[in-house]
Design a protein that fits this description.
With 396 residues, this protein is of the alpha/beta class. Helices cover 42% and strands 16% of the residues. It is built from 15 helices and 13 strands. The strands form three sheets. A seven-stranded mixed beta sheet has the order 3-9-8-7-6-4-5, with helices on both faces. A three-stranded mixed beta sheet has the order 1-2-11. A three-stranded antiparallel beta sheet has the order 10-13-12, covered by helices on one side.
Length: 396
């Protein structure tokens, strides 16, 4: 009987609108890329996709998806352990393990599922999970599903992490959990310190490298490579839905027995359908491409440096860092949204982020650079930012 709840939902939806928190979905009428077409037919430069390596519509990736579709069909209509495992699933698991330098890998329909299924099997009442306050929503949810004690340390605060490790000393197992890169600031986790502390206090380490796999580190292996701690991380979760082609899918990669155990126990793996062949084939092709040459991540790095330098020189207040997530700090909520609107009029698609996604008074525009951007795209964006910045009196 759809009655009382309807009225309540209408009221709550209005509250969301009144608070300026209602999320409209922008409809795009072209494939994903550096240049996209928005509904009114206007072409804009896209600076807000997670398409870091520009692979979302790379011809070789699309071709691999076509070929896999033709060879292996559309769907599997089964979970992996009944009749859903193809040769190509095993191949992809091997390639991901090799790429990340881990023993073994388990595929999931999304990294959200990987994070939903990675804690509960290992971490019972006797265990402790020690987690960064700014970790991704899917890690938070996954940790909630486990019966372990939970310790939240202040974001990137190594003194607090150490304090929490001490508090958790009596637990049978300790697991430190962190995003490799945090999506609002683009800051990299201090994996060096995290590993050292975890070794000192006998803890395991899990890194969610969704915003890093494929492009952070000299050969794109992610934050463990960037920080020089490959081999010291026990579990990596990551997505195929960002740099690695951007369709969907995710995985947990890690120590042999841990992955073997997850294959027996992890609920989103056991009770959800097999990753579609076309996605498997295309992701596999992406890993081949990234293993052959670092050309794309090198271009992304160069683009990022260029954009960060020019925007800083123009007078913008940018959170320093190396990541293609470039937060342009505006502080005032309204200003961030006005600026994004003005930039769209100039043909630059970016998003303003404000409370509650970021703390009050720390509103910003989050620019995301891609290897798909050419010098001309970056220059257009920088000059549009500068024009709008002057108009809104952010710049002198
Ligand atoms: C995007 C993201 C996810 C979710 O990945 P999906 O594969 O889209 O479910 C999980 N963790 C982090 C840190 C992310 O940035």
């Amino acid at each position: 009987m759809y009655g009382a709840i309807k009225g309540d939902l209408v009221k709550q939806l209005q509250e969301i609108r009144d608070n300026g928190l209602y999320k409209d979905e922008r409809v795009i009428s072209s494939p994903q890329g550096a240049v996209i077409t928005v509904t009114d037919g206007k072409q804009v430069l896209n600076f807000c996709a997670n398409n870091y390596l520009g692979l979302a519509n790379h011809p070789r990736v699309v071709e691999a998806a076509h070929q896999t579709l033709d060879r292996w069909g559309y769907g599997l209509s089964s979970v992996r352990f009944i009749c859903g495992t193809l040769k190509i699933h095993k191949e992809l698991e091997r390639k991901v393990s090799e790429f990340l330098g881990m023993d073994d890998t388990l595929l999931y329909a999304a990294c959200f599922d990987a994070n939903g299924g990675v804690f509960e099997p290992f971490m019972n009442q006797e265990s402790a999970i020690i987690t960064d306050a700014l970790n991704h929503a899917s890690l938070i949810d996954g940790i909630r599903l486990a019966k372990a004690q939970r310790f939240i340390y202040q974001h990137a605060d190594m003194h607090d992490l150490e304090a929490k490790l001490k508090e958790a000393a009596s637990a049978r197992y300790r697991l430190v959990v962190t995003d490799g890169v945090f999506s609002m600031d683009g800051d990299v986790a201090k994996l060096n310190d995290i590993c050292a502390l975890s070794e000192k206090y006998d803890a395991l380490v899990l890194v969610d490298d969704s915003h890093a796999t494929g492009f952070i580190g000299k050969t794109g292996r992610g934050t463990p490579e960037h920080c020089g701690v490959m081999g010291r991380i026990d579990l990596i979760t990551t997505t195929f839905g960002k740099a690695l082609g951007g369709a969907m899918g995710g995985c947990v990669s890690g120590r042999r027995e841990m992955i073997e155990f997850l294959r027996q126990k992890s609920r989103p793996y056991l009770f959800s359908n097999t990753l579609a062949p076309a996605v498997v084939g295309a992701t596999s092709a992406v890993l081949d491409m990234l293993s052959e040459t670092t050309h794309l991540r090198d271009k992304l790095e160069k683009n990022t440096q260029y954009f960060r330098e020019k925007m800083t020189a123009a007078g913008f207040d940018i959170k320093p860092g190396v990541h293609p997530i470039v937060p342009i700090m505006l502080y005032e909520e309204k200003l961030a949204h006005t600026m994004a609107d003005e930039l769209l009029k100039e043909g630059i698609y970016v998003i303003g982020f404000s409370y509650p996604v970021v703390p009050k008074g720390l509103a910003r525009i989050r620019v995301q650079i891609s290897a798909a951007h050419d010098a001309e795209h970056l220059d257009k964006s920088i000059s549009a930012f500068t024009r709008v910045g002057k108009k809104l009196q952010i710049l002198n």
